[in-house]
Design a protein that fits this description.
Helices cover 44% and strands 13% of the residues. It has helices spanning 17-30, 38-41, 49-57, 66-79, 91-100, 113-123, 146-155, 169-177; strands at residues 4-7, 14-15, 86-87, 105-108, 131-133, 162-166, 181-184. A five-stranded parallel β-sheet has the order 5-4-1-6-7, sandwiched between helices. Helix 8 (169-177) links the parallel strand 6 and strand 7 (181-184). Helix 1 crosses helix 3 and helix 1 packs across helix 4. The two termini are 19 Å apart.
């Protein structure tokens, strides 16, 4: 039915919320701020670093402290990239099935490559993605369709024969704008 399957990473293939919570709590502790629970941040993980900083410190990207806090958070996350992050239940079986069925698959995420590539390596998928498009591969990020279109080009596939699976509205908007079928998880 589909010739290709593309996935978002965080919140779709991987439960990375525990490690993102650890990173945020590391920075909060350094600033003598109250720690946050995993349950408090889990719904916001797909919104990336800006959401984590807002939850922990109540500041947004316009605040003068944002960039400093962002860098501290990213450093803490990079130091603990895959301590508790795990593939969601059923993902390993699904990826194995795609490989057995000769259906190419890939990852399109807004996470920067310096975190995406080592995380994908550490997760040890049963077969490797045919392409990985990170948040800094292009100047455009999701919800712009350009990263999804590039993933299809890298795999030699069409967008209308591809399904994109993601957990955030921007994933679904990007997939629809790219002319793909979309699945929200």
């Amino acid at each position: 039915m589909f010739e290709t399957v593309l996935f978002d990473l965080d919140g779709t293939l991987v439960d990375s919320a525990p490690d993102l919570c650890l990173a945020l709590n590391t920075v909060l502790a350094e600033h003598n701020r109250p720690l946050v629970s995993l349950d408090a941040i889990r719904p916001w993980v797909s919104r990336g670093t800006p959401a984590m900083i807002k939850i922990g410190f109540g500041v947004n990207s316009q605040d003068s402290q944002f960039e400093i806090l962002r860098q501290q958070f990213l450093n803490a996350y990079g130091d603990n990239l895959c301590v508790e992050s795990r593939l969601f239940d059923g993902i390993e079986k699904l990826i194995r099935h795609l490989g057995d069925s000769n259906i190419p698959w890939g990852i399109v995420t807004n996470k920067p490559a310096r975190y995406t590539d080592p995380l994908v390596d550490l997760l040890q998928f049963p077969n490797s993605p045919g392409t990985i498009i990170s948040g800094d591969t292009l100047t455009q990020k999701k919800p712009d369709p350009a990263p999804l279109i590039l993933a299809c080009e890298n795999l030699g596939r069409t967008t209308n024969g591809t399904v994109y699976v993601g957990d955030d509205r921007r994933d679904i908007r990007a997939g629809i704008a790219a002319g793909m079928h979309t699945i929200a998880v």
